[in-house]
Amino acid sequence: MQTTVTKINDKMAKEIANKNTTASMGALLLDAGKITASDAERIIALQKREGMRFGDAAKALGLINDDDIQKALSHQFDFPFLTASEENFSPELVAAYQPLSAQVETLRAMRGQLMLRWFIDAHKTLALVSPSRNEGRSYMAANLAIVFSQLGERTLLIDADLRQPRQHTLFKLQVGYGLSDVLAGRADLTIVTQSTAFRDLSVLPTGTVPPNPGELISRGLKNCLQQLQIQFDVILIDTPSTEQGIDAQIIASLCGGTLLVVRKDKTRLNDLQLLKEALQDSGSQCLGAVLTDF
């Protein structure tokens, strides 16, 4: 008998919650298991009595916290992000965990510039390149990929650093097949991993670290990108630093566009100038430079 009553209450609570925009948070919290049907009745009673919003009433009763409210709002406004309690990704992915921060607002401004200046017409691929290691290239590529996906762009992040890959660590992906395996003919593009947290974000990790990264990139990446451009609106490519080899220049030439990533008090101006000239000589358009400070 108790089970039957609970089912009726669930249905009634969801009907009440769906009557208006404010109360629709109730349905989200119910579906997420944050509140029960009896909780919803108490919340609605307080909401009506005090003229409060559903989320505020639920919080006042001690049933949910700020993270629960923010998560429900992210669904209501179709703006996915993660709360601190969700350890899906590395905390370095500030676009996932701190979407309202000044740092992420800067990333969104950068996204806007790239949408206006590059990701128009036939342009779909962009390489992120830096002169040396530890200048924030992988960090920038990952967070930019997230903010593009939050805009609703079908976004793919490729880890083409076949020497010292990081994206599988940032996104906490299991080590398995990846780009190197596709280029070597050991796997196909069905191994691209779609994010469960961000429906418009997919990741192609490096996969097996090969003994011949430069050769693999040279002979197979062009065809791979041509296939992927059919499926995605934005393709961001993390590359190895140019001090490690010519891989990044080859990738940049295939993309046609490059975003330089440099680090404050670390990158040498002469190295940056030489890299810019090398990229231009390879036929890649340098869209600008991002200065990281961390």
Q: Overview of this structure, please?
A:
- The chain has helices at 2-17, 24-31, 37-50, 54-60, 66-76, 94-97, 102-117, 137-150, 167-170, 179-183, 213-231, 247-255, 269-281; strands at 125-129, 155-159, 193-194, 201-204, 234-238, 257-263, 285-292.
- By secondary structure, the chain is α/β, with parallel strands linked by helices.
- It has two domains: 2-76, no CATH class; 94-292, Rossmann fold (3-Layer(aba) Sandwich).
- Strand 3 and strand 4 (201-204) form a beta hairpin.
- The protein starts with a helix and ends with a strand.
Main beta-sheet strand count, sense and barrel state: 7 strands, mixed
Q: How many domain units?
A: 2
β content, as a range?
5-15%
Distance between the termini: 59 Å
DSSP helical segment count: 13
Large-scale geometry: elongated
Structural category? alpha/beta
Mean pLDDT: 86
CATH superfamily of the largest domain: P-loop containing nucleotide triphosphate hydrolases
> What is the CATH level 1 assignment of the largest domain?
Alpha Beta
The H/E string reads: HHHHHHHEHEHHEEHEHEHE
The third-level CATH topology of the largest domain is Rossmann fold
Number of strands: 7
Strand order of the largest sheet: 3-4-2-5-1-6-7
Helix content: 40-55%
Query: Over the alpha carbons, how many angstroms does the gyration radius reach?
Result: 23 Å
Unreliable runs, pLDDT <50, ≥5 residues?
1-23
CATH architectural arrangement of the largest domain: 3-Layer(aba) Sandwich
